[in-house]
Write a structure and sequence with these properties.
- By secondary structure, the chain is α/β, with parallel strands linked by helices.
- Helices cover about 15% and strands about 20% of the residues.
- It has a six-stranded mixed β-sheet with strand order 3-2-1-5-6-7, sandwiched between helices.
C-alpha cells in the first residue's frame, strides 16, 4: 500500500505535514509493503520531470470536499490526522487513530441534502452560491499528478 502525505519539505519521516494539500510543495510517499519512501517536489512535477505518483491512500490534516470527491472517484482513500510529522502520521494511521474521510455524494458542498437547511440553502441547483454554480470547484485542482496505485505505475 502506497501512502501519500502532503509535507512542507524534503525531510523524509521528519517532514512537517502541510495543512493545505492543494498548496503543498512536497508529497511524501511511503510504501508500506517494503518501507521505502520518497519525497516528490512540486517544482520537479511542474517541469515535467516526474512520472505520475501511484498511491492507495492520502494521509493529511484535512481536505477540501471537491478534492476528497476526486480522490474517492479514483478509489483512493483519504485519512485525516492531527500529527505534525510524516512519521507521526504513519504511526497514527497504523494504530487506527487517523480518521477516514468519506465523500458522501453530491457536489461536496454543505447544505445540499434533502434534510439540510444550512450552507447554501439545499437543493441541487447548479447556481448555488457556495461553489459558484456549475459544480466547478476551485479545490478540484491537484498540484501533483497522482493516480491510483492499481493503475500499474
Amino acid at each position: 500500500m502506497k501512502i501519500c502525505i502532503p509535507v512542507c519539505g524534503p525531510e523524509g519521516l521528519d517532514a512537517k505535514l502541510n495543512p493545505e494539500f492543494t498548496e503543498t510543495e512536497h508529497l511524501f510517499v511511503f510504501d508500506a509493503d517494503n518501507g521505502e519512501h520518497r519525497t516528490f517536489s512540486r517544482e520537479a512535477e511542474q517541469d515535467g520531470a516526474e512520472e505520475p505518483i501511484a498511491i492507495d491512500v492520502v494521509l493529511c490534516n484535512d481536505m477540501p470536499a471537491g478534492l476528497l470527491r476526486a480522490f474517492a472517484a479514483q478509489g483512493i482513500q483519504v485519512f485525516a490526522t492531527s500529527s505534525e510529522t510524516a512519521g507521526q502520521a504513519l504511526i497514527a494511521l497504523q494504530s487506527g487513530e487517523a480518521e477516514e474521510l468519506v465523500f458522501e455524494g453530491g457536489c461536496g458542498c454543505q447544505g445540499h441534502g434533502e434534510e439540510s437547511h444550512g450552507g447554501c440553502g439545499g437543493g441541487h441547483d447548479d447556481d448555488h452560491e457556495c461553489c459558484g454554480g456549475g459544480h466547478q470547484h476551485d479545490d478540484d485542482r491537484n498540484v501533483f499528478h497522482v493516480i491510483p496505485a492499481q493503475a500499474g505505475i
